[in-house]
Design a protein that fits this description.
homodimer, 320 residues, six-stranded parallel sheet, 11 helices, 42% helix, elongated, DNA-binding, DNA-binding (chains A, B), HTH_LacI (chains A, B), transcription (chains A, B), LacI family DNA-binding transcriptional regulator (chains A, B), DNA binding (chains A, B)
DNA sequence: GTGAAAGCGCTAACAA
DNA sequence: TTGTTAGCGCTTTCAC
């Protein structure tokens, strides 16, 4: 490359860096050679030099096929792109070991920062020690053992609104499907729901609470159980989108079997349900804003990278 | 690191590479030092050596918030993970220049291979020359100027099935929303539809064809037009998922205004419509399998990387 | 079994 | 303005 232009590698570097201290003529020669060879500087080598950054952000989400996380990633990318960064992306599938591997690999590629949706599987995050000075933003869920910035949805507000609606309609027996043990967002939604109902002199029946994180079929089977018990709940609350879809899958089966739509419990879904208003069954969605969540997570990360934000971990709330 | 273990960097490298030619004792010392320092070898430096590979696959999709592409990426990741590779991911938003930038950056990070969903914006792909020996797989859509392996859905089969259904029900006036000019998948679906209807002595009315790629609101506004013309079509065909959602958004508005569900044209949607069977309006979905598409794309890429596949570009079809 | 030397592609610092 | 030197962190080759 340098040979073709008849200059030294330094001159190539300088030209590509903006051309400071290079004769226009020489620059021209370099540019020409670059084009002729389709030369692309090796970013990995460049990042090796001290003081240079890799231009990479590591993003670990739980499940790419869930549109919530896809949209989240889109929000992250939007900001990252505006800041000239590129995304290393992986999904954990809620597995703690996969999360650990993924992050170790991100770090070994010298990402400048990390954005992580913590995996639900409960396990100590031994990888935090490896972070060193690399900033990390935890999004969508709490992670007790991570001493880092958090960007969360307003789970309590969403849950309160849901509770208000349910109470206003006179529901007394409501079921809940979600992983309240390991997924903080689900737990927050559940607890606030319980509080709001408690304030109205009601309580969640623990026999009507089932744990699932993201699995459509699992959720469907819990819904089946609820529909089959003698004293059906009057509403089923799905802690997220995928769980909601699972419940509705079971509803579709029931309708096929001749069950009437208004004989089925109301379904309340968190996180958005596309076309919920067009369904033949009674559904209510309490939507969060995954794209803005992603954007905010990325902005928060960049504030650390820029040194704009200093000090202890921050906690940001993205309104629903 | 090497100092802490009292050995040379070479010995560390050897130990981490499996420990060939290192005394178990010394290995132990190295392992211990690694743990103590939370040492992670620098993958970028490692990849710098000749003959080493980066362990990265570049994936360029059009829109992460579309669950179709999210699921596609999941399929890619599944295979990549099994092969110990990691994913550099970016979305093009259908923009040709963004596609070009993205791929240039992937290449400058020395990805081992690329998987690309070509952006719809028509523009010559000048970046192909930069590929050098890096294999690329084109997925989901054709890209005429790319001389590379392709992994496509069976658009024609899906369209034929849709046409059969429509014809069986006596539809004669059907509208189509999709970008038949620049998105080959949409075009293939449209053309096959036309062929099948032609065989039945009917034809698509060109005034009932509108171009949109992925935009929900755009699609909704076209649907609005179709609903407002005097001689309504009896069916509206959406070339993909997002377009279908757009059409249905408009339907939801109409229902709110008191329009009866059975007064609205049937909607046929390609690529899957979650919960389509639960909608209050008549909808038919012709689903493809994005996850398998992603898996197949990744497998095809690895066959090139492994040297299992040689010779000219292959064309694979993933059944719907 | 271990280490010294060399070089992957790049750029900051210094020299010419 | 341009080039030489050196070193980022790693691994391959060769010597011991």
């Amino acid at each position: 490359m340098a040979r073709l232009a008849g200059v030294s590698p330094v001159t190539v570097s300088r030209t590509l860096a903006g051309g400071k201290n290079v004769t226009p003529e020489v620059q021209q020669r370099v540019i020409e050679a670059v084009r002729q060879l389709d030369y692309l500087p090796n970013e990995n080598a460049r990042g090796l030099r001290p003081g240079q950054h890799s231009g990479l952000i590591g993003v670990a989400i739980t499940n790419l096929s869930n549109p919530f996380y896809g949209t989240f990633a889109l929000g992250v990318e939007e900001i990252a792109h505006a800041r000239g960064r590129y995304i290393l992306l992986g999904s954990t599938g809620e597995s703690a070991s996969r999360e650990s591997d993924l992050i170790a690999n991100f770090l070994s590629r010298r990402v400048e920062g990390l954005i992580v949706i913590p995996a639900g599987e409960p396990a100590p995050r031994r990888w935090v020690r490896r972070l060193g000075q690399v900033p990390i933003v935890v999004a969508a869920r709490e992670a007790a053992d991570l001493d880092a910035d958090r960007v969360l949805m307003d789970d309590a507000a969403m849950a309160r609104r849901a509770a208000d609606d349910l109470l206003a309609e006179g529901h007394q027996r409501v079921a809940f499907i979600g992983n309240i043990v390991t997924v903080s967002a689900h737990r927050a939604r559940y607890e606030e729901l319980g509080r709001a109902m408690g304030a109205a002199g009601l309580r969640m029946d623990p026999r009507l609470v089932r744990g699932v994180t993201d699995d459509v079929e699992d959720a469907a089977s819990h819904a089946r159980d609820f529909l089959d018990i003698a004293h059906q709940p009057t509403a089923i609350i799905a802690a997220n989108n995928r769980i909601g879809v699972g419940v509705l899958r079971e509803y579709a089966r029931r309708l096929d079997e001749g069950v009437r739509a208004d004989a089925l419990p109301l379904v309340a879904v968190f996180d958005e349900l596309e076309l919920g208003d067009l369904l033949r069954v009674r559904v209510r969605a309490y939507a969060s804003d995954p794209r803005e969540l992603g954007r905010t997570a990325a902005r928060t990360l960049f504030e650390r990278l820029d040194g704009v934000a200093v000090g202890g971990p921050r906690r940001l709330m993205v309104p629903a």
